[in-house]
């Protein structure tokens, strides 16, 4: 059993919970596969993809990047604060992080509404199928992440904060990958 | 047998195996019709044979799951089943329903009758009264096992098993909703068909496999549970949205092609994890359990499930591939090895483990049982290969070149003959399995000198409980 015990301790050294890491890896696989498929289909129609991409609001997405990264920073800040016994400040950091998440959703929602107003939907072009699938799926994760941040701000054991922040950083990371590929890559 | 009520499982396994025999005979007959199309065409048309083949499969697997639950829950919860009477009542309802189905199908009684006639929806053909009976039986079962677990010890294995069984019953309710719009009909239909075999059944499979590994290898419960949670998470993560791979061509929105392709590709992960789990447990385990046949079935289950469900599923799950291969013999190849590997082998593993205990004749003749594993599995794998080749040729001739369906069928007849041969081997394997489980009384093979030496002197050898 000693081998098993030593192997398990490697998993136990993961910050937070093993199941969260299983989820994070699964999510990265899905978004990775989605981005790969996007790039593969783009090869078949580079001009159409570039034209469709020009209809996106790069400024809003750029602002959203700053919003989400700042939010991630605040969530990361919560853990050392909580471990130093500054529970109120840790909670404040988590709430602030979640509010920035809400701001992200507001900006993203405005972007979706603007597309809809121009009659663009997921059937308009292959580019928009991927655009809606990937950023829509990501936005759903932001909603879920905000709820998780509230949950761990309420049940604020350090381990919970660690698990919640790990999920939030994944949401963060995925956006940082989506933004250049979908909005900027020409 | 520690608990008297585990005996319930014996009745369930008995009925399950009887239906297993019916299923295999139906399959054999269908295989004959493929090469001699007029066989019994007036008396029992092919569509009826196929219905019997698939329906009896599902029912015997379910009975096997119920039996497994009645066998393992007392041991896990450390108490008797809440009410053995309810358990037997549940079995009677299911048997009556099954007989009703067979009679209704064979003689096409009450055609078009809302309550009594068959419904003509693939796999969900059962008349409505039978469906209602299934729901009543499921409620009795859930009440019975849930009460047992609630009053007893709760383990990860029983928690996951109950989660799977509850979800199984709830999803079956979609069998009652049959919209007239064909696209919607298919959409909800998959809520039962797909979310069963590629969702909640995987939870049942993982928990039964975990129980077997715990008993057969003696690995710490803590380690087994960690694996179990990871497998279950991977199964649900990939399997639920993986439903999308059935929505490519039924009139659902186009985005399902990407959702289905991506998520169902990941469906291979839980099957790979289950295979790794089984082998790592055996490798790490120090218990030398005498029931080697159960171990063989468990390992065989995880490997053949990985290939049948995982690899053969992936083979045609990407929508670009499926555009051509949809509904050809490729699907049949996948269906056969996936059901056999994942769920047939799982049930046979559990039955092989439980039967000697239930019949109190431990140890028993393992050699015949193990031979039946190789016969059945060899036959099934060969059948999968022949159908895969048949499907590949069919896809090319029919979908790429554009030949007529029946012309193509004539061209691939050689594969159907080989499939029939494979079916005969599977049948022999099943007969041998049934004989080995029910007939011999005592162990007939004495250990040879090497094995005897190992049992006596190997420091790693710890006798089973």
TrEMBL record, chain A:
It comes from the Bacteria. This is Nitric oxide reductase NorE protein. GO terms for molecular function: cytochrome-c oxidase activity. GO terms for biological process: aerobic electron transport chain. Belongs to the cytochrome c oxidase subunit 3 family. PROSITE patterns: COX3. The keyword Cell membrane does not apply. The keyword Membrane applies.
From TrEMBL, chain B:
GO terms for biological process: aerobic respiration; electron transport coupled proton transport; respiratory electron transport chain. The chain crosses the membrane at residues 12-37, 57-74, 86-109, 129-150, 157-177, 189-214, 226-249, 255-282, 294-315, 335-355, 367-393, 413-438. Its EC number is 1.7.2.5. InterPro entries: Cyt_c_oxase-like_su1_dom (IPR023616), Cyt_c_oxase-like_su1_sf (IPR036927), Cyt_C_Oxase_1 (IPR000883). GO terms for molecular function: cytochrome-c oxidase activity; heme binding; metal ion binding; nitric oxide reductase activity. It holds the Pfam family COX1. It is a multi-pass membrane protein. It is found in: Cell membrane. It is an enzyme of class 1 (oxidoreductase). It comes from Sedimentitalea nanhaiensis. Belongs to the heme-copper respiratory oxidase family. It catalyses: nitrous oxide + 2 Fe(III)-[cytochrome c] + H2O = 2 nitric oxide + 2 Fe(II)-[cytochrome c] + 2 H(+). Heterodimer of cytochromes b (large subunit) and c (small subunit). PROSITE patterns: COX1. Residues 14-438 form the Cytochrome oxidase subunit I profile domain. Component of the anaerobic respiratory chain that transforms nitrate to dinitrogen (denitrification). NorB is the catalytic subunit of the enzyme complex. Shows proton pump activity across the membrane in denitrifying bacterial cells. The mononitrogen reduction is probably coupled to electron transport phosphorylation. This is Nitric oxide reductase subunit B. One of its GO terms (cellular component) is plasma membrane. Keywords: Cell membrane, Electron transport, Heme, Iron, Membrane, Metal-binding, Oxidoreductase, Respiratory chain, Transmembrane, Transmembrane helix, Transport. The lineage of its organism: Bacteria, Pseudomonadati, Pseudomonadota, Alphaproteobacteria, Rhodobacterales. Pathway: Nitrogen metabolism; nitrate reduction (denitrification); dinitrogen from nitrate: step 3/4.
């Amino acid at each position: 059993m000693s081998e098993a015990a030593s192997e398990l301790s490697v998993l136990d050294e993961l910050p937070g919970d093993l199941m969260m890491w299983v989820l994070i890896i699964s999510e990265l696989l899905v978004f990775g596969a989605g981005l790969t498929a996007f790039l593969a289909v783009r090869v078949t129609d580079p001009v159409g993809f570039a034209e469709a991409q020009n209809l996106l609001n790069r400024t809003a997405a750029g602002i959203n990047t700053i919003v989400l990264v700042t939010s991630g920073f605040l969530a990361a800040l919560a853990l050392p604060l909580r471990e130093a016994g500054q529970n109120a400040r840790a909670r404040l950091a988590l709430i602030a992080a979640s509010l920035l998440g809400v701001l992200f959703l507001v900006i993203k929602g405005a972007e979706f509404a603007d597309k809809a107003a121009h009659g663009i939907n997921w059937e308009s072009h292959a580019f928009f199928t991927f655009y809606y699938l990937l950023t829509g799926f990501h936005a759903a994760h932001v909603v879920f992440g905000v709820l998780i941040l509230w949950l761990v701000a309420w049940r604020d054991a350090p381990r919970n904060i660690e698990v919640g922040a790990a999920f939030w950083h994944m949401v963060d990371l995925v956006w940082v990958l989506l933004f250049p590929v979908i909005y900027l890559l020409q | 047998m520690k608990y008297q009520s585990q005996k319930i499982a014996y009745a369930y396994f008995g009925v399950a195996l009887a239906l297993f025999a019916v299923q295999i005979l139906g399959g054999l007959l269908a295989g004959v019709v493929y090469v001699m199309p007029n066989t019994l065409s007036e008396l029992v048309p092919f569509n009826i044979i196929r219905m019997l083949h698939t329906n009896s499969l599902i029912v015997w697997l379910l009975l096997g799951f119920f039996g497994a639950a009645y066998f393992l829950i007392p041991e896990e919860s450390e108490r008797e089943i809440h009410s053995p009477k309810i358990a037997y009542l549940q079995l009677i309802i299911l048997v009556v329903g099954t007989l009703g189905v067979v009679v209704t199908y064979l003689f096409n009684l009450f055609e078009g009758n809302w309550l009594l006639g068959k419904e003509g929806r693939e796999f969900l053909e059962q008349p409505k009264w039978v469906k209602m009976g299934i729901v009543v039986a499921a409620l009795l079962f859930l009440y019975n096992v849930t009460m047992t677990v609630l009053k007893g010890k709760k383990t990860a294995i029983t928690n996951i098993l109950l989660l799977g069984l509850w979800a199984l019953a709830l999803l079956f309710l979609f069998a009652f909703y049959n919209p007239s719009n064909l696209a919607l009909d298919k959409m909800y239909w998959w809520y039962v068909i797909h979310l069963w075999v590629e969702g909640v059944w995987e939870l049942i499979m993982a928990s039964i496999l975990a129980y077997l590994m715990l008993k057969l290898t003696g690995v710490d419960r803590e380690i087994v549970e960690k694996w179990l949670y990871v497998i279950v998470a991977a199964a649900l993560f990939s399997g639920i949205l993986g439903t999308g791979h059935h929505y490519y061509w039924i009139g659902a929105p186009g985005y399902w092609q990407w959702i289905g392709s991506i998520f169902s590709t990941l469906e291979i992960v839980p099957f790979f994890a289950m295979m790794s789990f089984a082998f790592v447990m055996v490798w790490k385990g120090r218990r030398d359990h005498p029931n080697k046949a159960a171990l063989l079935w468990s390992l065989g289950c995880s490997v053949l499930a990985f290939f049948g469900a995982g690899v053969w599923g992936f083979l045609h799950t990407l929508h670009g591939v499926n555009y051509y291969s949809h509904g050809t013999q490729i699907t049949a190849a996948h269906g056969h090895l996936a059901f056999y590997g994942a769920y047939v082998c799982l049930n046979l593993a559990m039955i092989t483990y439980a039967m000697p205990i239930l019949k109190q004749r431990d140890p028993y003749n393992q050699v015949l049982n193990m031979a039946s594993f190789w016969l059945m599995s060899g036959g099934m794998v060969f059948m999968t290969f022949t159908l895969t080749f048949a499907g590949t040729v069919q896809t090319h001739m029919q979908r790429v070149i554009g030949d007529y369906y029946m012309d193509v069928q004539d061209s691939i007849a050689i594969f159907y003959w080989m499939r029939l041969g494979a079916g005969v081997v599977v049948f022999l394997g099943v007969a041998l399995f049934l004989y080995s489980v029910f007939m011999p009384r005592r162990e007939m093979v004495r250990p040879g000198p090497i094995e005897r030496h190992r049992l006596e002197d190997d420091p790693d050898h710890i006798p089973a409980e």
